[in-house]
């Protein structure tokens, strides 16, 4: 790294934060990124909608895909505009993940002859419903563009590797009862009261903590919605709770659903309903892969598990081992005070440069 | 009673069921009832909106008010039209309370010289929000019309006295938490999970059963609505439950609210909210009043407590002791299969006639 890299990176990240790119409105940012990529004669750039893919074609024996999303969540707490405090950049997307985008653009533009071929991918709509996800569309319609031996997904990870990702399952559980007048409840059965033990079991849930490739995945179970009631003087005959289960990548959604059934079935009765409304498989850490092992080594830090779901699972679904890696604290994502520092940007760029230039 | 009274009463009740009178649409029925009342030269009839008040003016030392509502809940399960099976009348309102209205009209028209002065009152909108209630409007705007020493309210009671009524209190309890990502719930606090113990306490509630004037009032507590949730992957920071408490008439709403606080406050935390959204006092049985004591005696059955709220409380609020009395099983009210038999109608008419004609 040159001495000026940290401040150049911070300027680039600031410029990216200054271009609004809330999900579904990424065109301006895609234009800017496309312009930057087209300044690099060693990259073949393809634009599909507002998704961008830029590839080296050096005939290397391995190809690494480096992908990041262009979109941000909506601004919150007055963080629309970038704001610098010393060498720290604040603003929507600073952590998730325009700091990462700046790092990628910097490395793409400063490493014309990497030791592996590189595919840079910038895509839309990661922060919204999965059906809009640009990476998913690219895999569905242009799978050749994303082929590679391994992938790096630029989510904020604090500059270390967050390996694989957990799966996610949402189940809607409907409990039944029998209506009655609230002055004579003994003639019916209160379905909302039946929620008590069910929520108790969910709250008392102790998830497995399997260790895969040295990373501990902590499973979770949370009620995310509850609803019930007929009228102000009626014992309700129906109550619905939706739970979200985060499960380690040693299980597929079917096994995770079966585990949930084992936990909650003792509290269910004939007539109750159990509907899986959303299920996404996770991805194993795959840290034995040489590229990902090198990435871990380049960070100089022990990897940890990614407990949330990320597009690492999308790569894994298509047979490409992937890991999460990017600057900024992941806990800041989607918070009004999200930020990234010049030092974090520089470290991430250094790691990525080392990975892509190390002889293989 | 003449031998033909049961079949005449059944015919009258059938005619009343045949005139639809869902709340807010009582005009046709009020027209019919007004015509019948005006056939009785011993009654002074007043119509205020679709409410009717018909009074004797015999200068008796006591005046008894007999009141019943004209409206029904909406039809259900195909019970719009009256249907006779032998001497049993089915149809919306058959039990609640066109059977009672038929009884009242029959006695009003066949007892020209009662031993007490009588005020017959037929009013609108008992089955909907209290602000529409015709009896309440009459008390507010024409209190002189409803003055009396005691009142009989024609709810279905199975032909016995259901004494007084319980009060009702609705409280909206909001539990707070702290938002977090469901993959890292330990950084927040799940407000829906906090519902578990609260619903447990509500479900385990054992109400008092005070005995007043020989009637046991069974207090109840039921959750009637529950709501919460932010997004599919967010630990929710807010959950709301609404409870309905039915309390015996030896307590006022303030004391009932205090008792609820004693039960649930141990589960609440700073930041939670407690809002009384509806409170109606009950009414004590007042069976020591000579008119109500005579009514009990005339039924030949032990009185029991009215556990739901009724307009008996509206009379009591204005200083008039009142009791619920009418034909038909109270548990049939608002059910698609509600019905009343000729025998029930005849018995109720007999009791009322005896009460109003007994020398005082």
Strand order within the widest sheet of chain A? 1-2-6-3-7-18-8-17
Query: Globular, elongated, flat, extended or rod-shaped: what is the shape of chain A?
Result: elongated
Largest interface (CB within 8 Å) is between: A-B, 47 and 47 residues
Give the SSE string of chain A: HHEEEEEHEHHEEEEHEEEEEHEHEHEEH
The N- and C-terminal alpha carbons of chain A lie at a distance of 21 Å
Structural class of chain A: alpha+beta
The radius of gyration computed from the alpha-carbon positions of chain A, rounded to a whole number of angstroms, is: 23 Å
Strand tally of chain A: 19
As a percent range, the share of strand residues of chain A is 25-35%
H/I helix tally of chain A: 10
Residues in helices of chain A, as a percent range = 25-40%
Mean of residue pLDDT values of chain A: 96
Unreliably modeled segments of chain A: none
What does this structure look like?
The structure is a homodimer of 360-residue chains. The first copy, chain A, is of the alpha+beta class and 360 residues long. Helices cover 31% and strands 25% of the residues of chain A. Chain A has helices spanning 5-18, 27-38, 94-110, 134-141, 143-146, 191-204, 253-264, 290-299, 312-317, 342-357, and strands at residues 44-48, 51-55, 63-69, 83-85, 88-90, 117-123, 150-153, 162-163, 167-176, 180-181, 211-212, 215-216, 220-229, 234-235, 238-247, 273-280, 304-305, 322-324, 339-341. The first copy, chain A, has an 8-stranded mixed beta sheet, sandwiched between helices. Chain A has a 4-stranded antiparallel beta sheet with strand order 13-15-9-16, covered by helices on one side. Chain A has a 3-stranded antiparallel beta sheet with strand order 4-5-19. In chain A, strand 4 and strand 5 (88-90) form a beta hairpin. In chain A, helix 1 crosses helix 10 (342-357), helix 3 (94-110) packs across helix 10 and helix 8 (290-299) runs antiparallel to helix 10. The longest helix of chain A has 17 residues, at 94-110. At the A-B interface, helix 6, strand 13, strand 14 and strand 15 of A face helix 6, strand 13, strand 14 and strand 15 of B.
């Amino acid at each position: 790294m040159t001495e000026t890299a940290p401040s150049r990176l911070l300027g680039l990240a600031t410029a990216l934060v200054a271009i609004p790119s809330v999900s579904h409105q990424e065109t301006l940012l895609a234009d800017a990124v496309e312009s930057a990529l087209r300044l690099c004669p060693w990259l073949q750039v393809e634009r599909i909608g507002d998704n961008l893919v830029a590839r080296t074609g050096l005939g290397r024996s391995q190809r690494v895909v480096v992908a990041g999303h262009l979109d941000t969540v909506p601004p919150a707490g007055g963080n629309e505009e970038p704001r610098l405090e010393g060498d720290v950049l604040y603003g929507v997307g600073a952590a998730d993940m325009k700091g990462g985008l700046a790092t990628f653009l910097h490395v793409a533009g400063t490493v014309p002859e990497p030791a592996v071929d590189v595919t840079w991918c910038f895509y839309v709509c990661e922060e919204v419903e999965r059906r809009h996800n640009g990476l998913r569309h690219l895999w569905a319609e242009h799978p050749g563009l994303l082929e590679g031996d391994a992938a790096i997904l630029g989510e904020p990870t604090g500059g270390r590797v967050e390996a694989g990702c957990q799966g996610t399952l949402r189940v809607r559980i409907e409990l039944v009862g029998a209506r009655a007048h609230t002055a004579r409840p003994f003639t019916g059965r209160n379905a909302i009261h039946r929620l008590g033990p069910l929520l108790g079991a969910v709250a008392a849930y102790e998830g497995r903590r399997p260790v895969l490739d040295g990373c501990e995945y902590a499973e979770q179970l949370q009620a995310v919605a509850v609803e019930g009631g007929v009228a102000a003087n009626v014992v309700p005959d129906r109550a619905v709770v939706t739970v979200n289960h985060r499960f380690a990548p040693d299980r597929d959604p079917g096994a995770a659903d079966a585990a949930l059934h084992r936990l909650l079935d003792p509290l269910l009765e004939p007539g109750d309903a159990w509907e899986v409304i959303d299920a996404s498989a996770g991805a194993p850490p795959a840290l034995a892969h040489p590229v990902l092992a090198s990435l871990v080594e380049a960070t100089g830090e022990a990897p940890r598990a990614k407990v949330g779901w990320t597009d690492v699972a999308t790569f894994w679904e298509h047979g490409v081992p992937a890991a999460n890696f990017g600057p900024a604290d992941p806990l800041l994502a989607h918070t009004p005070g999200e930020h990234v520092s010049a030092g974090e940007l520089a470290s991430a760029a250094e790691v990525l440069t080392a990975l892509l230039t190390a002889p293989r």
